[in-house]
Design brief:
The structure holds two protein chains of two kinds.
Chain A: H1 11-22, H2 27-34, E1 37-40, H3 51-54, E2 68-73, H4 102-109, E3 112-118, H5 159-166, E4 172-177, H6 183-189, E5 192-195, E6 215-220, H7 223-232, H8 249-256, H9 263-273, E7 293-297, H10 307-322, E8 326-330, H11 335-353, H12 385-391, H13 394-407, H14 416-433, E9 469-473, H15 482-486, H16 492-496, H17 503-508, E10 512-518, E11 533-540, H18 545-564
Parallel strand pairs in A: 2-3, 2-4, 7-8, 7-9
Antiparallel strand pairs in A: 1-3, 4-6, 5-6, 5-10, 9-11, 10-11
Chain B: H1 6-15, H2 24-37, H3 48-53, H4 70-84, E1 100-111, H5 153-162, E2 166-167, E3 170-171, E4 174-177, E5 187-190, E6 197-204, E7 218-229, E8 233-237, E9 241-245, E10 252-258, H6 265-281, E11 294-304, E12 317-322, H7 325-344, E13 353-355, E14 364-367, E15 378-379, E16 386-387, H8 390-398, H9 404-415, H10 419-427, H11 432-448, H12 466-490, H13 494-497, H14 503-514, H15 520-531, H16 540-547, H17 556-567, H18 571-581, H19 590-603, H20 611-633
Parallel strand pairs in B: 12-13
Antiparallel strand pairs in B: 1-10, 1-11, 2-6, 3-16, 4-5, 4-15, 6-7, 7-10, 8-9, 11-12, 13-14
Classes of the chains: A alpha/beta, B alpha+beta.
Family (chain A): Belongs to the amidase family. GatA subfamily.
Organism (chain A): Bombardia bombarda
Subunit structure (chain A): Subunit of the heterotrimeric GatCAB amidotransferase (AdT) complex, composed of A, B and C subunits.
């Protein structure tokens, strides 16, 4: 795995790595400082027999395993005795899964060696990886914090995974992205975070937060590493019969047809069938950005956007234009409702998904959990209330209550149903601006211009511009100080604000990738963020993941040269 | 006093066994099976003993009540009945209350006949070792996902077709949330917003047991059918311990919801019974109410008929978890009377959920509106829509066979069976008895050299269907006795295929009987001989030959000498005939004649006597010899 973009990592991380080289090399110490791992696999030497070499997945000619280290977010099931699956919840603090998540099996077959399970916001609910039964994740070690920086948020909910990649302890990390949980920590910690199209990577074994939004996401220090895994090794093509939302093989072929970036994978497949040894190291030619159309969504230029990030966004756009790409402003009018819709839908599904934690079959159980006297109205109590009161953290409880309310018969129509309508509008917004059709909604036909809001600008007499990708910031700010996000004065809604740019792609099920960009010198006095890394997000049409990653690789490379100047 | 079933007695007497502690379980099983044989006994004609048997079917497990001994339970029931002064009230008097109209809607839950669970490939098993057929998803293990098993649609669609529903091309699954230990995921997956079948109906006739007030027929609309998951089975243990068996969790159910169009308690029970029969006949369901495969909830409301209620239905109360047809009827009557009494006293009916326990005379409050669970229905985000193709519906419709109503009509019209016998045949042993009847009939007709009756012919056009009635009679009653006894001994396997009495052998017996080559008594002995294995299959005729069982009627002289023996000392009886002869009484003393004939049959070799001949000879002797003799004496 290339560590090229490692240069881009945040300064405090680099300081940490340097200091850990000096004195803090033991994992225990690191854990205490960054707190990014919940459990670690026993250290194994690289040449030690690993399961990946013996245990091949067995399916259609899996590519020759190439060893890499993998950190797994702790809401993804693993079966190793040293790696419980806790979801950072008191409820599951000692829970061992009886089965392994499909994605972990798939990656092990491709040479992954598990290094540990990473810390997160309980069940994936949070934006700073602070709502964990195992304590908050931070980007900077305790003793290293200087008065000017302090401990920085790693972003959430996959904060532990992002830090594990940023420190180099893992080449690749698995996260989950429901509303930005991979992209946001990637942006804060200066690594690459990729959320694939919904239904591409199997969720079997991923403890659900909001099923209709949950995706398995990947983090690495370079886009190329992710592209190799997802596209070249054929992860994108594998249907999992155990996940009802995993696209069937036929649907995958149909969605990929006409998308040229998958052709490299097909070529490799053909080569293997013909018996030629695949020259795995040769990656396809770096994609030229010439002629690619990037849309700049005007609605994303919000007042709360950090000026430094706005400048970096703008600089990146002009640089891409300079390289021959076309930059056009586009309008996504439903964006302003997307965040509220997300915070109705996700908690609703969460309240339902978390109903299974009652202490009857597994997990924490309070002493008086199942005595019949706690049943119903007999004692005025509610069944399992003691267990559930002890087993969940505050943020999870908040979202369960929120979700239970929005699903209640009196609120359903005003919240859940409305939010689903907004969700459809958000997806229609995207479908309108992308030149490619959404393969899942092909029959929807042309957009009637008279339905468009007046604010949408026309490119020509046929309507507004159509683009290949959208370019926008991943988060409105750089990584804030932990003390600022955990403080008493901060409401939960403030934290929800961080998801404003990532949620729309989640609602629409679209692929999105966050690439790191340095924010320099322009951070105004008084802004919350104190880190120097931010993320630029590229969003593509549904199942355009391969081209999205290829373009993101080119964009990341070109941004690096900008930086290097 | 209840009768101990013969099966129970014989097991005890012959093998010295009492199968379970205190006979409770065994009796429960025996009783409930017995009650199936009385299903057809329309409610108005039920004998008291049968009414009691129907009280017994399993109660929903009350969380912490220890099992009450059956005898105690029965005694309490009797006491409760006595106390209420209702002991001998016939239910026919109970169907209406002047000045009030009752309205009932019913929800029926039935287990679908499928090999796999609704959302996991685990097998559906009813006798398996507890917790041996459980997939990860059934236990709601974190990260496991539902996998819809499409073959569960087959029985579901069949059930919907049998109820004349519109099958929806697209339906969806929703989550219904509530906490209970028998519900691992904290929600039940059901079809709330978009069920797979809607707008059906079912027509009930007097033979189904509807109230007389409903006339010749009543049609009840079916609002919808939905597929959903069953829950785990809870077994209460001493000391507030609950044992959970997750084999049942996720087993597919259908819920059938009727419109509130039922106005009489007996009709409600008849509807549940008929739906069970329909589901069995299309092979949609595994088992009936007796074995817990079917449960009903009823919504009951009343309103005044004087028009004061302005056409609006009254507030309804729901009675949950009724597990027998009789419970349906009794609970509705009790709830109706409670609501009327409440309203007449100036009170208000509360919209609440109520329960009913066996043998009680009142429903009891479970929870009120304020305790009502908000189920927070939400579309299941893991499950896609269910798309049912027209071709599938057409194929299942074509392959479904004759529906029960048409079949009952056929049995009555073609073979001249009574509606009661026809229904009983169809209901017994979940439809296996009627199949057996057809086998016997085919074989019998072959042996008798009769043409198979075509579907269009009716009784009038056909020569004589007495052989069919004979076969029906034997399949119902004589075979019924064999099955009841042997099932008790062998634990219910006999009723599965009747292999102890192969259809060909019963047909052989009946062919001889029909041709009057053997007597009914001999036929009966042969049947039992077969069932005990004393006569091998195919050896019926040989047995008759070897044992000399052929019916050879005794001679006229022998009849006459029998007559002489019998009237010995019966002068008092004979006087009646003299009085008739002399014109002192108007009616011929037929009863006295038959008494004497009976004496003849008892005295003589019954298997070689024809009662008709005996009657003829006796009548002649009285006329010609005894009466003149008596007259001469005087």
């Amino acid at each position: 795995m290339s560590a090229r973009t490692g240069q881009l990592r945040g300064s405090c991380l680099r300081r940490h790595v340097r200091s850990s080289l000096r004195s803090l090399s033991s994992p225990q110490q690191q854990r205490r400082l960054l707190n990014h791992f919940i459990s670690k696999a026993p250290t194994s030497h690289p040449d030690e027999a690993s399961p990946t070499t013996t245990e091949n997945n067995g399916d259609n000619g899996a590519p020759s395993p190439r060893r890499f280290t993998l950190a797994v977010k702790d809401n993804i099931a693993t079966t190793q005795s040293s790696l419980p699956t806790t979801c950072a919840s008191p409820f599951l603090s000692t829970y061992h899964s009886p089965f392994e998540a499909t994605i972990v099996t798939q990656l092990r077959a491709r040479g992954a060696a598990l290094v540990g399970k990473t810390n997160l916001d309980e069940f994936g609910m949070g934006s700073h990886s602070t709502h964990s039964a195992f304590g908050a994740v931070s980007q900077c070690p305790d003793n290293d914090s200087t008065p000017t920086t302090g401990q920085l948020s790693a972003g959430g909910s996959s904060g532990g995974s992002a830090v594990a990649v940023a420190t180099g302890e893992a080449d690749v990390a698995l996260g989950t992205d429901t509303g930005g949980s991979v992209r946001l920590p990637a942006a804060y910690t200066g690594v690459v975070g990729f959320k694939p199209s919904y239904g591409m990577l199997s969720r079997h074994g991923v403890v659900p937060y909001a099923n209709s939004l949950d995706t398995v996401g990947l983090l690495a220090r370079s886009v190329g590493a992710l592209r190799e895994l997802v596209v070249d090794s054929g992860l994108w093509a594998e249907h999992d019969p155990k996940d009802p939302t995993s696209l069937s093989a036929a649907a995958r072929r149909r969605c990929a047809s006409g998308k040229q970036s998958y052709s490299y994978y097909y070529k490799q497949q053909n080569k293997q069938q013909e018996g030629e040894s695949s020259s795995s190291s040769s990656t396809p030619n770096t994609l030229s950005l010439k002629g690619i159309k990037f849309g700049i969504p005007l609605e994303y230029n919000i007042a709360e956007l950090d000026p430094g990030i706005r400048a970096a966004w703008s600089a990146a756009a002009s640089h891409l234009q300079h390289l021959g790409a076309r930059i056009v402003p586009v309008s996504l009018p439903s964006t302003r409702h997307a965040l509220s819709a997300y915070y109705v839908i996700a908690p609703a599904e969460a309240s339902s998904n978390l109903a299974k934690y009652d202490g009857v079959r597994y997990g924490l159980r309070a002493a008086d959990n199942t005595t019949p006297t706690t049943q119903g109205e007999n004692e005025g109590g509610v069944l399992y209330s003691t267990t559930r009161g002890l087993g969940f953290g505050d943020e999870v409880k908040r979202r369960i209550l929120l979700g239970s309310y929005t699903l209640s018969s009196e609120a359903m129509d005003n919240y859940f149903v409305q939010a689903q309508k907004v969700r459809r509008l958000v997806r229609r917004d995207f479908d309108r601006v992308f030149a490619l059709d959404n393969p899942l909604h092909e029959g929807e036909g042309a957009f009637d211009l008279s339905d468009l809001p007046e604010t949408v600008g026309m490119e020509n007499k046929f309507g507004p511009a159509e683009v290949d990708f959208l370019l926008c910031p991943t988060a409105p700010t750089v990584a804030p100080r932990l003390e600022d996000v955990g403080g008493e004065g901060k409401s939960a809604v403030d934290a929800y604000m961080n998801d404003v740019f990532t949620v729309p792609a989640s609602l629409a099920g679209l692929p999105a990738v966050s690439v790191p960009v340095r924010v320099r010198g322009v951070t105004a006095e008084g802004t919350e963020g104190v880190g120097d890394m931010a993320g630029l997000q590229l969003i593509g049409q549904y199942w355009d993941d391969a081209r999205l990653l290829a373009v993101a690789e080119a964009v990341a490379g070109s941004l690096e040269t900008v930086e290097g100047r | 006093m209840t009768r101990i079933p013969t099966a129970e007695l014989s097991r005890y007497l012959l093998t010295g066994q009492l199968t379970r502690r205190g006979c409770l379980g065994a009796r429960r099983v025996a009783f409930s099976r017995f009650s199936t044989t009385t299903i057809a006994g329309l409610s108005q004609t039920q004998k008291p003993q049968e009414q009691q048997t129907q009280r017994i079917p399993s109660q929903p497990p009350a969380a912490n009540t220890p099992p009450v001994p059956l005898r105690k339970q029965l005694k309490e029931q009797a006491r409760a009945l006595k106390a209420s002064g209702k002991k001998k009230t016939k239910k026919t008097d109970n169907q209406t209350v002047p000045g009030w109209e009752l309205t009932v809607g019913i929800e029926i839950h039935a287990q679908l006949n499928t090999a796999r669970k609704l959302f996991s490939p685990a097998a559906t098993s009813f006798n398996g070792k507890p917790n041996s057929h459980v997939a990860l998803f059934d236990l709601a293990i974190p990260g496991s996902q539902p996998l819809f098993q499409p073959e569960t649609l087959i029985p579901a669609v069949r059930a919907a077709l049998a109820l004349d529903c519109d099958i929806q091309p697209v339906s969806r699954f929703d989550r219904k949330h509530y906490f209970h230990w028998d519900q691992p995921s904290g929600y039940q997956i059901t079809q709330y917003y978009e069920p797979f079948a809607k707008n059906g109906h079912i027509t009930l006739y007097p033979r189904d047991g509807i109230a007389a007030e409903d006339g010749e027929s009543i049609t009840v609309g079916i609002q919808q059918l939905q597929m959903e998951q069953d829950t785990a089975k809870t077994t209460a243990q001493p000391g507030e311990v609950q044992w959970l068996d997750f084999n049942r969790v996720g087993v597919p159910l259908i819920e059938i919801i009727t419109h509130p169009q039922i106005h009489h308690p007996a009709t409600a029970a008849a509807l549940v019974r008929k739906i069970q029969m329909l589901l069995n006949s299309v092979d949609a369901c595994v088992s009936g109410m007796e074995s817990g495969g079917l449960r009903a909830d009823v919504n009951v409301s009343v309103r005044r008929t004087d028009g004061a209620s302005s056409g609006k239905l009254g507030t309804r109360a729901e009675i949950k978890n009724l597990s027998s047809f009789k419970a349906v009827e009794d609970a509705i009557i009790a709830e109706r009377d409670r609501q009327i009494a409440l309203l007449e006293a100036g009170g208000v009916v509360a919209g609440e959920t109520r329960g009913w326990s066996l043998g009680s005379t009142e429903t009891r409050r479970l929870r009120g509106k304020e305790g009502e669970v908000d189920y927070r229905y939400m579309p299941d985000p893991d499950l896609g829509p269910v798309v049912i193709d027209d071709n599938l519906v057409r194929h299942l419709g074509n392959s479904m066979g004759t529906l029960p109503d048409a079949e009952v009509d056929q049995l009555m019209q073609q073979y001249g069976l009574s509606s009661k016998d026809a229904l009983s045949l169809m209901l017994l042993d979940n439809g296996r008895r009627i199949e057996y009847f057809y086998d016997v009939l085919d074989e019998l007709e072959q042996r008798l050299g009769l043409e198979k009756v075509s579907e269009t012919t009716t009784v009038d056009a056909v020569v004589d269907q007495s052989h069919a009635r004979l076969a029906a009679n034997w399949c119902l009653h004589e075979l019924g006795k064999v099955v009841e006894l042997l099932d008790g001994l062998h634990g219910g396997r006999v009723a599965e295929d009747y292999s102890v009495v192969p259809a060909t052998d019963l047909a052989a017996i009946l062919a001889h009987l029909h041709r009057r080559e053997i007597t009914a008594k001999v036929a009966n002995n042969l049947l039992w001989g077969l069932s005990r294995g004393e006569i091998r299959s195919g050896e019926v005729t040989n047995e008759i030959e070897e044992q000399g069982l052929w019916y050879k009627e005794i001679s006229e002289d022998e009849y006459m000498s029998l007559c002489d023996d019998v009237v010995e000392g019966q002068d008092k009886v004979l006087t009646e005939f003299v009085r008739f002869k002399e014109g002192k009484s108007k009616a011929y003393p037929q009863g006295k004649l038959m008494f004497l004939v009976g004496q003849m049959l008892r005295t003589g070799p019954e298997e070689n006597m024809n009662p008709a001949s005996a009657e003829r000879v006796m009548r002649k002797r009285i006329e010609e010899v005894y009466v003149p003799g008596l007259q001469a004496k005087e």
